[in-house]
Amino acid sequence: MNRLIECVPNFSEGRNMDVINQIVDVIHRAQGVKLLDVDPGEATNRTVVTFVGAPEAVVETAFQVVRRAAELIDMRHHHGAHPRMGATDVCPLVPVAGITLEECAALARQLAERIAAEAGIPCYCYEAAAFTAERKNLAVCRQGEYEALAQKLASETGKPDFGARPFDEQVARTGCTAVGARDFLIATNFNLNTTSTRRANAIAFDVREKGRPVREGNPITGTPMKDENGNVIMRPGTLKGTKAIGWYIDEYKRAQVSMNITDINATPLHVAFDEVSRCAQNRGIRVTGTEIVGLLPKRCLIDAGKYFLEKQHRSTGIPEGDIIDIAIHSLGLDDLKPFNPKEKVIEYMIDDSDAGAGNLVGLTVKAFAEETSRESPAPGGGTISAYMGALGAALGTMVANLSSHKPGWDERWHEFSVWADKGQDIARELLHLVDEDTQAFNRIMEAFAMPKKTDEEKAARSVAIQAATLYAAQVPLRTMKEAFKVFELCRAMVMEGNPNSVSDAGVGVLAARAAVLGAGMNVKINAGSLKDRAVAQSLIDEANQLIARANEEEAEITQIVETKL
Questions:
Q1: How many CA atoms lie within 13 A of 306 on its CB side?
Q2: Whole-model pTM?
Q3: What is the DSSP string of 55-113?
Q4: What's the rounded mean pLDDT across residues 23-41?
Q5: Is residue 250 among the annotated active site residues?
């Protein structure tokens, strides 16, 4: 899985588009990140920018954009409706895929330290990146705002986590920045078949973490009860990490429960949907669908789709697009208007791997065959081996899904769903290796194209060629290992799966053997060009072991298939 994080810096300029554009241009020119949104506000005099990418690229871009904002924005002249204390007021990092909140917190601290050291901007760390419990709350870090910085910087309790120093002319210009890490926030509205704001609010109070006040006498109009400290006593709602209110939307002619899910691990989207639906039903109201405001990570829809499939006792080992379709229909995401995942899911907005130049997995079957047949040496045998392995995994997965839904086998749906999930994982990795094998060959060609006029150039070229050749031997070895997993899947389907599909599992075995043996040939031919013969022999030995085992597996499983035909 690709590691992705989101960065949402808030800049203290929302009126001067020339300044905003110069700040945003830093993101446009950065490598490895994609700008998702720029939202300037005139009344707040603040611009919220969202970009996403690999962690290292995002952190580097965040540093550059914070430094650029400090050059362009003079906080001595800033006025706006929103609380603020710096040219870049806040800069949170948000985990999207393949990375934890704790890892983002560590990156945020490193970023804050660098901003302070290299850009000279004092930094506070907040939320998950905070060093103290009090500073988890952004309001504590920003208390008194820009106007209180001189006093805060001079006090022991108010000094920043990084870059502490007296309030000088530079700090007066840049202010301070809060750098943090937080979970992804999903803004969602649940559509109701009512126009009553009061009913929508009641449902919101049922579910939101804060809940509703405990009242004396009448639960609606009674006086709120208070504790010994004078604080209103609240009856918590049922959903952790959520904030919600009810409102009426004239455009849709209906009421909604508007919710921010601030902890998607504690309350996933599908859990919130089911709970709002339950509480609505208790009040004679039905949730007709869901509206997503802004973007969301792919895993939210994948988890939702699998959740609803499991409720139906259906296999979850189906293609990703099918799972997302289930989520869309189950959550009613197209209730108000068509829901396009490519415009709402972060990973789909930045992932053009299926359509990019030089990528094979997005081609049609016909185009893939034609591309292979051309006079260029890539795609070649290693690529085709990976694809054959993916087809073998797909056949085993197909038998698992057929078995999961076979009439009379209802009690076994989960058993086969587990196998189907494994098959999808294998196929996904092998499809990735389809393109990676071609890229490995291209690396060799690029190394051979390096200049070789001087002794230094010749030495660098030789090192690059050997590194690229080693990689070109390691990739097909990975293909061999992944394709070998297909045997276990297909063996299980031959022995336990739908007997009407035993031949399909058998063909999967043949494809897996071809993948292992074909990739093995590529390991050997590339290892043959390595100068380090010990490394080369180790690769060849491992390949030969896999080839021998693949031949044994294929012979044994196909014999079982023959007895069942």
A1: 17
A2: 0.82
A3: HHHHHHHHHHHHHHHHHH--GGG---SS---BSEEEEEEEEEES--HHHHHHHHHHHHH
A4: 93
A5: no
